[in-house]
Every structure is written in C-alpha cells, then in structure tokens.
UniProtKB/TrEMBL annotation:
PANTHER family: REGULATORY PROTEIN PCHR (PTHR47893). The keyword Nucleotide-binding does not apply. It comes from Faecalicoccus pleomorphus. The keyword Nucleotidyltransferase does not apply. SUPFAM superfamilies: Homeodomain-like (SSF46689). Pfam families: HTH_18. This is AraC family transcriptional regulator.
Length: 326
C-alpha cells in the first residue's frame, strides 16, 4: 500500500503549481489552478493505515496509476460536503454526496473527479491483513478484527455505500476538525472509535439503493455539461443535445442528475448565479450587462432569481461587497 501512496506523491509533484508541506506525520499538497485552490493532506495514523483529508475546489486531482489497478487496499470514504465520483474496477461509476460513506476494495482510477468543483472529504486507506499483523497490540487491546469488514459489508458487491448514522457522523465531524488543527493522538482515537463502530454488526446502517453508471453514460453527461456551460448566454435545448448523442432526452437528464447531483435547470441556475456574484464583485459591468452575459434577456428576471439565491438584489449585493472591502 505504501507504493500507491508514494505514486500519489509523485503524481502530485509533477502537477503544475504544487506546494508541498511536510509535517512530522503528514504531507500536504496545495494545488493552485484557474478553478481555485485544492489541498490534500495525508497522515500516517498507524502502520498500514493512512488518513487523507480533501479540501477541493477543482474538477479533478491526480490519483492512482493504472499499474496499481491490480492491488486494492480497502478504502473508507466519507463526504463532508460537495460530491465525488468513484470509478470501480468493473468500469462502473458511483457518486458520494454529503453525509454518504463508502467502504470499498474496488476503486482504482488515474484521477479523482469532483463534478461540482467542490469536495470536502475523508479517506482512510488500509489493508486488513497487514494492519492486523503489524498492529497486533492494537488489535488485541481494542478487539479490532478488520478482516470481519469483508464479511459485514461485501456480501453482495465489493463496494458498500450508505448514509452515515448520527453516531458515525459525530465521529467523522470530530475527525474533520483535525484537518485544520491536527492532533495525531486524537485522530487515532477517532479512527479506532470509527473502526469499532464499523465492526459492530448490530450498528450497520442500511445500504443505499444505487444507480451504477457506465463509462459511456458518464461521458455523455460530462460532454453535455461542457456544451451547456461553454457560453451561458446560450440556452441549448436538452432535446437537441440528446439527439446529438443518440439517446432520449429523459435518459440524458437522468445521466446528468446522476453525475452532477442536480437537475439541469438547477445546475445552470446555480452556475449563472455564481458567475453573477463574481462579476458583481470583480467588475464594474452594469446590472443589465451582467444579466446579458449569463443568459438573461430581462434584467428583472435576473434580479428576481438573484434575490432568491442571495436574499438581496444585485445592486445591494455589489454595494455590500464594496463596504466589506473598506
């Protein structure tokens, strides 16, 4: 498993605009891009167990390499906020949203993909056999037989997804707090408490009913998103895009919702409002010019939608931002 993490390190280092920070028990990678700043922090919790915090404001990050596809350490993933795409070794795709967790030994991909350009999450890599052998004292003291995880969670498929219970959520919330203020001791306690909870068969939460998407379906959704967002002035009918890809309009909308977690109309509205917010803050364009740039022919309609999103009209928002800068 160390080889995979070493390769992740190499992948990050060859990326542009990478800042590397080393701590006594951690490595942090900060990547600056046009989309924003993304930070990945890796901690060595125990031998053969690594904890990774993701603070992502981008569409993708380097991940594992193809040569590592034959080796699948067990992963625990938890989505604190945003959305993450997971490619399984059978070439199907699944997605985690806020408060979802996933236990898997199927994931292996060349990059991590975040459909909404935002993700806060926690990943734990470990190998149950190597972990037990290297940490026999921990295993004996806390009665953590990690090999039982396979029996509990992989009865039907080697990936298990559910919404975190209230108890699990509280543990993971505490763990996330150590992203900014690391405490190796308390992080170990949280991890041990989490593992204890996962191994308690009586507390296993019900698995979610999931839709698995093929690579073709995911590619169609992503191409559609590119077409729809290339020029926000344009309003391209989904029927037209569906015909271009040879699928039904309903199927295309389902693929899109599966990948991005929102209906097309909601996704585009949120994107337009985000762009409007940026233009109001960073430019001197008039309200009518901003409305036109993001696809609203009527300034009044733009102001109405903006007010619903930000609880103030565009001009008030601009003035508020100017005052905050003084």
């Amino acid at each position: 498993m160390g080889e995979i993490l070493n390769q992740m390190l190499e992948n990050y280092l060859v990326s542009s605009n990478v800042q590397l920070q080393k701590g006594p028990d951690s490595l942090s990678f900060t990547i600056n891009s046009a989309e924003g700043i993304s930070k990945t922090t890796l901690f060595n919790i125990l031998p053969y167990m690594h904890l990774i915090f993701f603070d992502i404001h981008a569409r993708s990050l380097p991940g594992e390499i193809a040569e590592n596809a034959v080796y699948h350490p067990m992963q625990f993933n938890y989505c604190v906020g945003g959305r993450i795409e997971m490619l399984l070794d059978d070439n199907s795709y699944i997605y985690l949203k806020e408060k979802d967790f996933c236990i898997s030994r199927q994931t292996s991909q060349s990059e991590s993909y975040f459909p909404t350009k935002y993700y806060h999450g926690i990943t734990m890599y470990f190998d149950p056999d190597f972990f037990t052998e290297a940490n026999s004292n921990v295993d004996n003291l806390f009665n953590l037989n990690l090999s039982q995880l396979s029996e509990i969670y992989f009865e039907k498929k080697d990936t298990y997804i559910a919404e975190a219970s209230s108890e699990m959520g509280k543990i993971l919330e505490r763990l996330w707090q150590f992203y900014e203020t690391p405490s190796p001791f308390h992080m170990k306690l949280c991890v041990l408490e989490l593992l204890h909870l996962l191994l308690d068969a009586g507390n296993v939460v019900k698995e979610k009913t999931l839709t698995f998407y093929t690579s073709v379906q995911v590619e169609i959704a992503k191409k559609a998103e590119q077409i729809l967002t290339a020029d926000l002035k344009q309003h391209i009918p989904m029927k037209q895009i569906a015909q271009q890809f040879g699928v039904s309009e309903t199927s295309l909308k389902n693929y899109f919702r599966g990948v991005y977690g929102k209906n097309v109309s909601d996704y585009l509205r949120d994107l337009r409002m985000s762009m409007a917010e940026k233009l109001l803050t960073e430019t001197t364009l008039s309200i009518s010019e901003i409305a036109s740039q993001i696809g609203y022919t009527k300034q009044g309609k733009f102001a109405e939608v903006f007010r619903q999103q930000f609880q103030m009209n565009p001009l008030e928002y601009r003035r508020t931002k100017k005052i905050q800068k003084l």
